[in-house]
Specification:
Length: about 375
């Protein structure tokens, strides 16, 4: 399914590990540069600004191709309008395939064609179905997932996660008021199920180039799980989708559960992140705690905003200060000392990298022996009875 040479993908992982080892002080900059030089690599842009520039250039190229196609198709009038987005999507797929065969990966040019193809798939289905949201979401999810599996394009996976969530929401909308009423609970259960599913795949993962994508999907499940039953989200969506008018002194059904969920889940995220040393979950827990405070402030304004901000700042300062005091001298476990290696997998290939950088080994290069052995007709290699 993957269009790229898997040896190049493995080399990319090795180069990233080498950067981690170099930043941690295990290997020198010269060794890291030697590893990078000796390993065949993609045409790739790690600088986000340069990649953005190539993306704009690729978008201009893609639009130019679509413009040329439109010039030839204008004679078809309404018929061309019905099928033009399909043709543009095919052009995007073809451009992405061509660039992939030229070893462009996370370059910027390929981003323009891949995202353009997904966008045109959505427009094409919208025109055909006259804006049927569920069908649009299904086809966008399928297209983005196929493009991720084909090109390992992380932005496509983000689009897939959003589109798959839209499929769930619009699918429940088909059941009318009952589907809308159970939407928070179904979204909570589905996101929890996919969280543990992706977690299990990550723990048994053999192909390291799938790791980033699975990590994005796993993190998305955490965010969706929290937002699915957040009190503010549920209350506002109930008013929007079900037309419920909440009068003063009244509340939404199961309000106690949603209140408790809003307060407890961020704390559980925080405790689990500290226990497992999961950096991404830790940041998600901080964001969830902040949004929970905003949710409470949105409906229950106990203090003036300037007083609340001042007290909140003092509390955060006190927590940070005493945490640093307690953790600054710890050498193991949870500590305030900076990580020597940010990536927990960085030592997996350390031995191969250090050996390669020390002896200057060149992967994938076969050397021919100057001696011509063989030809023996009985015991002893190469023994023919003559010199």
């Amino acid at each position: 399914m993957i269009v790229y040479d898997k040896r190049l993908l493995d080399n990319l992982v090795l180069v990233e590990e080498a950067k981690s080892l170099e930043s941690a002080g295990f290997i020198s900059k010269e060794q890291k540069d030697l590893i990078k030089k000796e390993l065949p690599a993609f045409k790739r842009q790690s600088n986000i600004l340069v990649r953005l520039g190539f993306f704009l250039l690729g978008a201009f190229l893609y639009l130019s191709i679509c413009g040329v196609i439109s010039l030839f198709g204008l004679s078809g009038e309404s018929l061309f309008f019905d099928i033009c987005c399909y043709i543009f999507a095919i052009a995007g797929f073809a451009g992405a395939e061509f660039l992939a065969h030229q070893n462009y990966y996370e370059h910027g040019l390929d981003d323009a064609f891949i995202l353009g193809a997904i966008l045109n798939v959505g427009f094409a289905i919208a025109i055909t179905t006259e804006g049927y949201e569920l069908i649009i979401a299904i086809f966008v999810a399928l297209a983005s997932f196929v493009l991720y599996r084909r090109y390992l394009h992380l932005l496509s996976l983000v689009i897939f996660c959003l589109a798959a969530s839209a499929v769930l929401f619009y699918g429940l909308f088909e059941f009318g008021s009952i589907g809308k009423a159970i939407l928070p609970f179904v979204a909570m259960l589905v996101s929890a199920g996919f969280y543990f599913f992706t977690k299990k795949i990550i723990s048994n993962l053999k192909d390291s180039y799938y790791y980033k994508g699975l990590l994005i999907a796993n993190s998305f499940c955490l965010i969706l799980f929290y937002l699915s039953c957040n009190y503010l989200v549920v209350r506002e969506l109930s008013a929007m989708l079900l037309g419920i008018e909440i009068l003063p002194g009244k509340d939404i059904p199961f309000a106690i559960f949603f209140h408790a969920f809003t307060l407890v889940v961020p704390i559980l995220y925080l405790v689990q992140a500290i226990k497992t040393k999961d950096r991404i979950m830790l940041w998600i827990s901080f964001l969830a705690i902040g949004f929970s405070i905003y949710t409470i402030r949105f409906y229950y304004s106990v203090l003036p905003i300037e007083v609340a901000l001042t007290i909140g700042g003092l509390v955060l300062f006190a927590i940070a200060y005493f945490s640093i005091k307690k953790l600054k001298d710890k050498e193991t476990g949870l500590t305030f000392k900076p990580d020597r290696i940010n990536n927990s997998n960085a030592l997996l290939n350390a031995e191969a990298l250090i050996v390669a950088s020390t002896f200057g080994l060149k992967p994938e290069v076969k050397t021919e022996s100057p001696m011509d052995f063989g030809g023996g007709g009985f015991s002893g290699g190469g023994s023919e009875g003559s010199f």
